[in-house]
Structure formats: C-alpha cells, structure tokens
Amino acid sequence: MGNIVLFMHTSLDGFAAGPKGEMDWIHVDEEIFDFGAKRITKTNTALYGRITFEMMESYWPTAADKPGASKHDREHAAWYKEVHKVVLSNTLNQDTLKNTTVIGKHYVDALRDVKKNTTGEILLFGSPSTAHALLAENLIDACWLFVNPVLLGEGIPVFKNMKEKQSMTLLQTHVFSSGVVCLHHKMQHG
C-alpha cells in the first residue's frame, strides 16, 4: 500500500506561498536539488493539484532538451517523463495526457484506491490547496518540509482545513549550508 507524502517548501512562519502565490522567497541550489533528487527518484508516482501540474507540464517535458540544461533539469526531466502522475482536477482531460490519471470530485475514494494499488510513496509536490483538501481527509501520511529562513507574515499556509489536532513524529532532519532545514515527519493517524 502506498503512502501520500507531502513534499513542500515552507517559510519559517508556515506559509507555502505569499498572499498572491509568490514563491520567489524559496531558496534552491545544487545541494538542495541533489538532496531532493535522491529522495524523489525513490518513487514512481507523483500527485499534483491542477495548477502545479500545469506549471510542471509547461516546463519538465522539454527541460532536458534546452541548451545549457543543468544537471538537475536533465535528471528531473527524465524522472518526470517516466513517473506516473495523478492530478486532482475537475477540468483536465485525461485522454490528452501521457502517463497521467486525472481524479475529479470523488478524489477521496479515488486516492484511497491509488494508495491501495501503489507500492511505495506517492509524492505530493507543492499544491497547497490539494494538501489542504487531503489533510481534511487524513490522506497525507508523511511530510518532507523544506523550511526556508524567511518570515512572510501572510500568505497561503502549508497546513489548513484539518478537522482535529494532528500529531506527527519527526523521523529525520537535514540542515543545508543555505540555512534551509528539511524536516521529515510521519503523520500519526487516529
């Protein structure tokens, strides 16, 4: 059975994006890319909300082909091409997408089926509104949060819509030279 794992950057005060969706405060460099790549390549299923998926689709399918593509771009583009993508959307047409399953309004039951039929992790990338919907249904099993040393003061929170207090167990930490800290937590469900 698969586990849904949230993979997201956050500000120190708990925001996934600024008030208008800004993410220009997120620090990424080769050290963070390499760490993330080791983590990401251990999975063969990725979960996205529609907005994040459309951003990914606009970049990753051709990223490795661009002149001067970085090592990260080449590696992640190869992974993205092969990984099975699951997208929560009421508007996307699955028939026009390669290696992609689109889940609409009955996402809770559909994701439970995806979990039953997946071995290993299902990585949920970014997608704050999708994370909020899944948190409300206790569908997230673990979190890899990249805590950036910045305070936004306001914005789109990482955690929202939980029906009750959610306990977590810290499994791992990693401090990057930039000051970003990765926290890996397991959710303690009921």
Automatic annotation (TrEMBL):
Domain Bacterial bifunctional deaminase-reductase C-terminal as annotated: residue spans: 4-181
Domain of life of the organism encoding this protein:
Bacteria
Q: What is this protein called?
A: Dihydrofolate reductase
Q: Which organism is it from?
A: Filimonas lacunae
Do you know which Gene3D superfamilies this protein is assigned to?
A: Dihydrofolate Reductase, subunit A (3.40.430.10)
One GO MF term on file is:
5-amino-6-(5-phosphoribosylamino)uracil reductase activity
Q: What processes in GO biological process is this protein linked to? A: riboflavin biosynthetic process
Q: Which InterPro entries match?
A: DHFR-like_dom_sf (IPR024072), RibDG_C (IPR002734), Riboflavin_Biosynth_HTPR (IPR050765)
One Pfam family here = RibD_C
Extract the coiled-coil ranges from the record.
none
